[in-house]
């Protein structure tokens, strides 16, 4: 049971880091949305997202996690687009 508790604590630390990084990412997405709105630029950039997909495949060391990482980034990119679109409505 001690090992399980130790692993849970490790996950808690990682979760905290994930939340901090997510907040930073969303703050950047907010600013990007403002800049895109000011410049009349579309939120969604197909070429940029395709490049992001290729890049994350290169970053991943454990290929058995590919489907999980794809799902994670799908969600992150969707939320980022939503945040940017919120800036378009202002």
UniProtKB/TrEMBL annotation:
Pfam families: CM_2. InterPro entries: Chorismate_II_sf, CM_dom_sf, CM_II_prokaryot. GO terms for molecular function: chorismate mutase activity. One of its GO terms (biological process) is chorismate metabolic process. Coiled coil: none annotated. Gene3D superfamilies: Chorismate mutase. Signal peptide: none annotated. This is Chorismate mutase. The lineage of its organism: Bacteria, Bacillati, Bacillota, Clostridia, Eubacteriales. PROSITE patterns: CHORISMATE_MUT_2. Residues 1-88 form the Chorismate mutase domain.
């Amino acid at each position: 049971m001690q090992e399980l508790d130790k692993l849970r604590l490790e996950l808690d630390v990682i979760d905290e880091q994930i939340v901090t990084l997510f907040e930073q990412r969303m703050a950047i997405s907010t600013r990007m949305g403002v800049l895109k709105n000011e410049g009349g630029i579309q939120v969604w950039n197909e070429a940029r997202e395709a490049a992001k997909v290729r890049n994350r495949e290169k970053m991943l060391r454990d290929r058995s996690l590919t489907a999980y990482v794809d799902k994670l980034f799908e969600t992150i990119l969707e939320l980022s687009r939503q945040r940017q679109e919120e800036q378009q409505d202002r």
